[in-house]
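Posting for a labmate who doesn't have an account.
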Amino acid sequence: MRSAFISARFLALILAGLAMLCGVAPAARAAETLTIYTYESFVADWGPGPKIKAAFEAECGCSIEWVAVADGVALLNRLKLEGRGTRADIVLGLDNNLVAEARGTGLFAPHGVDTTRLSLPMSWTDPLFLPFDYAHFAVIYDSERLKDPPKSLHDLVEGDATEKIILEDPRTSTPGLGFLLWMKAVFHDEAGAAWTKLGRRVLTVTPGWSEAYGLFTKGEAPMVLSYITSPAYHEIEEKSERYKAALFEEGHYIQIEVAGLVAGTAHEVLARRFLSFMTGPGFQDQIPTGNWMFPAGRVSSAMPAAFGSVGAPGRTFIFDPEIVAAKRQEWTAEWLDAVTR
């Protein structure tokens, strides 16, 4: 019996070896895939996404699948359409203006990450949404074409109609929504009239930031709504100080970008691991010169000097997320009515 067992075992080894030689060895266990919904510029070749993907995959032995849409508002809109049937494990790219509406979908679970080591200009205690970067919105202008940039939001509204600006749509874009709220914070009940006046200076309104900034750098208009950190890109990557941020006397509206864990994900352990990873250098090191924002977590080196050259806003505007959720439709209708007259 023993000799028969040895022979059978020997035969099995021979057959296994032949199978490997013939390329029919049993398939290795497939790596777990984490599906993350985000916005297009985050995962562009020049964005932070590719390096973040490589860093996390090397650490987890898993795979990240990015699913990208134009911008953050479009991201929430897609998630609401998909509902419980969404493929997303994590949604990355919502912001402080959308968290109340996102919370209301019931599609997110507590992230469970320690937020005490986050680095933000204000405290953050939301249990569902975890910040990964931030910056103030700003009007960026071409200093070779515009010698006297606006010094306030009032200047922008009242200024020369021949000096155009490119804006983003607040219905699909987080910068567009941020600018809508900035206008409301400054002009209050007169925001509709201010939008009508500003309309003379608006060259076009794009669905997202990428389209707007691309048109701006192609020379279509001397101004664009972007971020106070945008000139750092040109200074670092292009060695140019041509594009500058206009510091406004009234102050600037802030954006804090966040990620959230989708409730009921089949990859909860891996998703939570990614969210924890998001607060450390493996992720955060890619934010300053990948997403061109300020990091919200720990980085391994000091910020590039170009980020400090623009100066800091004298005042920060921010609406409570619950107010934004309650008023966004009304304020968007006010904007739409003004710009379509």
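Reply:
Got it, the structure tokens are right above this. The chain has 14 helices and twelve strands.
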